[in-house]
Specification:
386 residues, alpha+beta, Elongation Factor Tu (Ef-tu), domain 3, Helix Hairpins, seven-stranded antiparallel sheet, four-stranded antiparallel sheet, 6 helices, 22% strand, rod-shaped, transmembrane
């Protein structure tokens, strides 16, 4: 082909200024094909309708399942970590003073009710009891003596009354005899001497009657004195018996025993130690323990006594426990503190209060030491599962 007939060469050779669009034609064609494909390509919803529907259904199922899990396993429960084991622990104190003779327990030992804990030397108290018993016997002897005197006084009264009766009869006869002799002397049939003798006998009979009357009165007063002595002796007996009972009780108090089953902690008594009256020798934790959970007041809306409780002791997480709500304190814990909060101020800030809830456990672990102050996490089922 001639050079002048080749269009490209002719353009290059002639230096024609006409732009060369031949090289851009394939790019424009590809761009047009891509745009045409984009216009004709369906959306993802049209291309995968089943997968989209399955995803939506799965999302709804997960939402429903999550709601049911929350409703069944989270919604019906109220829990708190502000809970502790509680018990009415107390100090074991002495009622009498003396030297410790024996200590029958060790630290943290579990004892049954009635077990001997500490013994104080009973020598002085045994002597005091013997003295008190001697006073009781002395009072009893005084009562017996007074009763004997009463009996003797009664006999003396009877004797004096008999003499009084005899004296009264003799007085009556002497009176009559004196009257007769006076009449005879006046008529001349009797002598003056005889009349005077009769008058003298009358005076003696009157004196004898007065003496017997005084004897009766004296015997009666002696009986009254004996009765008073008996009353005094009876009072002394009661006093002596009370002293003996007190001495016997003090003798018993030299032996300190456990009034209930529990554990002995913080044992401070030692053999040979002198302890004063009322001094503590140990602390005692009874077996009867429970849980006090301080729930927020907003958690008590549906909480009622008798609801089941699941508990976990922090020290023994592998030993879950079951219990129930026993009671709810009618007031927050702050209200019953030593220095309750005074909210009647101008800068009052409302704070959610905590209310103590008593929880009793159905069965405590027998092989584990559980005592006051141990942390517990209770979970109360406040609403039934639905």
């Amino acid at each position: 082909m001639p050079d002048d007939q080749h269009p490209i060469r002719s353009a290059r050779q002639t230096g024609d200024d006409t732009p060369d669009n031949t090289a851009d034609a394939p790019q424009e064609q590809e761009a047009g094909e891509a745009a045409e494909k984009n216009e004709k390509k369906p959306s993802i919803f049209r291309r995968h309708p089943l997968w989209i529907l399955f995803g939506l259904v799965a999302f709804v199922v997960l939402c429903i399942a999550g709601y049911m899990i929350w409703l069944i396993y989270f919604h019906p429960y109220e829990s708190t970590d502000d809970a502790f084991v509680e018990a009415r622990s107390f100090a074991v104190s002495t009622k009498v003073a003396g030297y410790v003779e024996t200590v029958s327990v060790n630290d943290n030992q579990h004892v049954a009710a009635g077990a001997t804990l500490v013994t104080i030397d009973p020598t002085d108290y045994r002597i005091a009891l013997d003295q008190a018993k001697g006073q009781v016997e002395s009072a009893q002897a005084a009562i017996a003596s007074a009763e004997a005197q009463i009996a003797a006084s009664a006999a003396a009264i009877d004797e004096a009354r008999a003499q009084q009766t005899s004296a009264a009869a003799a007085l009556q006869f002497a009176q009559e005899e004196a009257n007769r002799q006076q009449e005879l002397a006046k008529s001349g049939a009797g002598t003056v001497q005889t009349a005077q003798q009769a008058t003298s006998s009358l005076r003696q009979a009157q004196a004898n009657a007065a003496q017997t009357q005084a004897s009766v009165v004296s015997a009666m007063k002696n009986k009254a004195v004996a009765e008073a002595q008996r009353a005094n002796a009876i009072a002394s007996l009661h006093q002596a018996e009370a002293a003996a009972a007190a001495a016997e009780q003090k003798l018993k108090d030299t032996v300190i025993t456990a009034q209930q089953a529990g554990r002995v902690v913080q044992l401070s008594g030692a053999k040979g130690q002198f302890v004063a009256q009322g001094q503590s020798v140990a602390m005692f934790v009874p077996d009867e323990v429970w849980v006090v959970a301080n729930f927020k007041e907003t958690q008590l809306t549906d909480m009622r006594p008798g609801q089941p409780v699941s508990l976990t002791i922090d020290a023994y997480p592998d030993h879950p426990l079951q219990g129930r709500v026993d009671s709810i304190q009618p007031g927050s814990g702050v209200a019953f503190s030593l220095l309750p909060a005074e909210n009647a101020t101008g800068n009052y800030v409302k704070v959610t209060q905590r209310v103590p809830v008593k929880i009793v456990v159905d069965r405590w672990p027998q092989d584990l030491p559980v005592g006051p102050g141990m942390s517990v996490v209770p979970t109360v089922t406040v609403r039934p599962r639905s």
